[in-house]
Design a protein that fits this description.
about 220 residues; alpha/beta; five-stranded parallel sheet; three-stranded antiparallel sheet; 8 helices; about 15% strand; globular; binds adenosine-5'-diphosphate
């Protein structure tokens, strides 16, 4: 099974993605994580993507498409398919991906859309903190650590993603509305989208997603 997961910043797609890939044994590809890794290692790709990411804009399609296409070639076959998280984010990316995979066993089967009202997203994002050691995710409004700035699990320092500030978030939400919502519309027209109410508890979201995938 090959799945795209779409959702605005703060929709919870990172948390859900890690559950989906474990339960269904999928290759998880997060374009945001790949860009962040390249940025922290200062690779040529990271250097090219840096100014876009830090201001919240989308990295140009050409760069992103080339990166995803390289990734697809190197995927191990051992798993049951892929979960593509954060891609395609523009119609041009969706069409490039289609041209690459149509008719092959890498074509997409299901699109999950994590739907959350915009007001809820801001608090989720600006409050988000991530442990530098184990990657555990906290939120200063909803899930604060026992000691401010310190991970409950491993005791390491918590950090904030550079693009999790209000200015950059506004740009990311605008990018989502302008570029990514039309992609969901495109797959809606093909009747491939499962819309998930992502403004409810993670357990309810998770039950709904498992049911959707199991029935596919
Ligand atoms: P978010 O939490 O905002 O949804 P991600 O972690 O998925 O963000 O991505 C972080 C940043 O990486 C984006 O704001 C963008 O600059 C870049 N990025 C990730 N995926 C794509 C993509 N498919 N196309 C263009 N840029 C991307």
């Amino acid at each position: 099974m090959n799945i795209f997961i779409m959702g605005a910043p703060g929709s919870g797609k990172g948390t859900v993605s890690s559950r989906i890939k474990d339960k269904y044994n999928l290759n998880h590809i997060s374009t945001g994580d790949i860009f962040r890794k390249n940025l922290s290692e200062n690779t040529p790709l990271g250097i090219q993507a840096k100014e876009y990411m830090e201001s919240g804009r989308l990295v140009p399609d050409e760069l992103t498409n080339a990166m995803v296409s390289d990734y697809l070639k190197s995927l191990p076959d051992a798993r049951n398919g892929y979960l593509l998280d954060g891609y395609p984010r523009t119609l041009a990316q969706a069409k490039a991906f289609e041209a690459l995979t149509d008719g092959s066993d890498q074509a997409v089967d299901l699109v999950l859309s994590m739907d959350v009202p915009k007001e809820v997203l801001t608090k989720r994002i600006t409050g988000r903190r991530i442990c530098k050691g184990c990657g555990e995710i906290y939120n200063v409004y909803y899930k604060a650590p026992a000691n401010e700035g310190v991970c409950d699990i491993c005791g390491q320092e918590l950090s904030q993603r550079k693009d999790d500030n209000e200015d950059s978030l506004k740009v990311r939400l605008d990018e989502y509305a302008a570029n990514t919502e039309p992609v969901i519309g495109y797959y809606d027209d093909k009747d491939m989208v499962a819309h998930i109410n992502a403004d409810q508890s993670m357990e309810d979201i998770w039950s709904f997603i498992q049911k959707t995938i199991d029935e596919k």
